[in-house]
Structures are given as C-alpha cells and as structure tokens.
UniProtKB/TrEMBL annotation:
Recorded name of the encoding gene: gem
Keywords: Calmodulin-binding, Cell membrane, GTP-binding, Membrane, Nucleotide-binding, Phosphoprotein
Protein species of origin: Austrofundulus limnaeus (Annual killifish)
Cellular compartments annotated: Cell membrane
GO CC annotation, single: plasma membrane
Record carries keyword Phosphoprotein: yes
Official protein name in the record: GTP-binding protein
Similarity comment: Belongs to the small GTPase superfamily. RGK family.
Quaternary structure and partners: Interacts with Calmodulin.
Length: 197
C-alpha cells in the first residue's frame, strides 16, 4: 500500500531528503500518554483547522502534508507509529531508521516520561550517529501548570547536553505545536544547505 512504501522505501540513508522539494520524514517518539496522538492530529488538521484538505495521505499513523515555513513550502511525512507498550531495541532500531528528524516528546507533568525521553535520546544517538540529525525535545502539556514535574530550566539544560533544540507545547491549547514543526523544517534545511555547500 502507499503508506507502507512511505515508511519503508529509501529509509536507510535519508539522502533523498537532501533534495529540495522531497518530503521530510518526521518521527514522533516518546512514552505513552505524552500527547503524540494529539500532536499528530493537530498536524493532520483533524479538529477545526481550515486546511485539513491539504492532508494528502492521512491515516491514523502516517500523514503527509505541505506546510509553508519562511516563505518556502516543505512536505512533511509525520510518522506516529511508535507503540510505546511494545518497545524493544529491535523495534526502536527499525523505527528510527524511517526518520529524517525526530520530535522527542515527554509530558511536563510526568517525570518518568522525561526520563524516558532521555533514554530515547541516547538510543537515537547510537542508532543515528550523524551529528546533525535534527531532534527537538518537546515538553508537552505545558497548560497543566499546577501538575508540572519537570521545570523549563531543567529541560532546557538537558536539551543542551543532548545537543538538541527544546520547546514547550500544549496540544490542548494548540500552543507552539506548529512552531515545533517549523523548527524541525528549519533544522532540516540547514542540514540540506550545509550538504550542498
Ligand atoms: P500518546 O499516548 O502519546 O499518543 O498520548 P495522547 O495524544 O493519546 O494523549 C494522552 C492524553 O493526554 C489524552 O487524554 C490527551 O487528551 C491528553 N493530552 C495530550 N496533550 C495534552 C496537552 O497539551 N494538555 C493537556 N491538558 N492534555 C493533553
């Protein structure tokens, strides 16, 4: 099926995405309940977004969409196929090979999910050792201020150690979700441009 080919074809090197116009495969990673599904449905324009027709290939787990970032169109294939319950090294290895860039989610209300994000970051470094693989650490549910278990400063420091970007989001408030995607596209372009030069 078309969604199968999206996930599996040419996934090894991700070199195709070095060409302008070819889709970027962005992978959602993170523990259970952190908001990956909610993130993906905002991307897909599920709720009341005006541009839901733009989603060319949308299923539960894979969605392809064009977005405009800094005046230039980018095509993103968002993969939300990670089953946090079934994770093991083999599954993770196979899964991360499908991506050009990663959104590493945790919930600010759940310290265990933050620790899980750290573990996933370490696994990513091992499985995708390329130095400039774009990764954004995403602290979701920032609307739940009174249930916060992970401070912004701690997470920012952690991201610096991880050598990745950091953003806090709320899918419930639709806050910073698109900024996370814009950030990923900007990083992918920087990598693309540095390869060209
Ligand atoms: P997943 O397991 O990572 O796919 O997590 P889900 O997207 O299914 O979200 C788990 C639960 O957290 C659901 O009940 C969501 O409604 C809720 N949730 C997700 N994001 C937010 C958020 O930003 N704020 C709040 N308050 N709840 C959220």
């Amino acid at each position: 099926s078309s969604s199968d080919s999206v996930i599996s074809s040419d996934s090894a090197g991700g070199e195709q995405s070095a060409e302008p116009g070819s889709p970027y495969r962005v992978v959602l990673l993170g523990g259970s309940g952190v908001g990956k599904t909610a993130f993906a449905s905002i991307f897909a324009g599920a709720a009341d977004s005006m541009d839901s027709d733009d989603c060319e290939l949308c299923g539960d787990e894979v969605c392809e969409k064009e977005i405009e970032v800094d005046g230039e169109t980018a095509t993103i294939i968002l993969l939300d196929t990670w089953d946090a319950e079934m994770e093991n090294d083999w599954a993770l290895e196979r899964y991360v090979q499908t991506g050009d860039a990663y959104l590493l989610l945790y919930s600010i209300t759940d310290r265990a999910s933050f620790l899980r994000a750290s573990e996933l970051r370490i696994s990513l470094r091992r499985l995708r050792p390329a130095r400039h693989t774009p990764i954004i650490l995403v602290g979701n549910k920032c609307d739940l201020v009174r249930r916060r278990e992970v401070s912004t400063n701690e997470a920012r420091a952690c991201a610096a150690v991880f050598d990745c970007k950091f953003i806090e989001t709320s899918t419930a408030m639709q806050h910073n979700v698109w900024e996370a995607f814009y950030g990923i596209v900007r990083q992918l372009r920087l990598r693309r441009d540095s390869k060209e030069n």
